Amino acid sequence: MLDYVVQLTKDATRISRDDHVRLRAVGFDDKAILQITLIASWFNYINRVADALGVGRE
Q1: Model-level pTM?
Q2: CB count, 10 Å around CB of 40?
Q3: Inter-CA distances, 17 with 13, 23, 39, 54, Å
């Protein structure tokens, strides 16, 4: 799962069906894969917005 999230963060266009197959092979179902994808994507989005606005910088 963590390898999937890292790839999603670095370059989501490189996620393939094989990545989903690997997640299923270790026990994640389609709902879990969707949740992992949505949560990681949301955090990436929020962090980029915060970085762009300088949130937390002094």
Answers
A1: 0.87
A2: 19
A3: 11, 10, 19, 36
> 1-58: per-residue pLDDT in tens?
999 999 999 999 999 999 999 999 999 999 999 999 999 999 999 999 999 999 987 7
* pLDDT for position 48: 94
Query: What angle do the packed helices 2-11 and 30-53 form, to 10 degrees?
Result: 50
Supply 41's token pair. 């994507």
Domain residue extents for the chain: 2-53
Integer angstrom CA distances of residue 26 from 8, 32, 45, 48, 54: 18, 12, 27, 30, 39
Q: Is 23 in contact with 33 (CB distance < 8 Å)?
A: yes
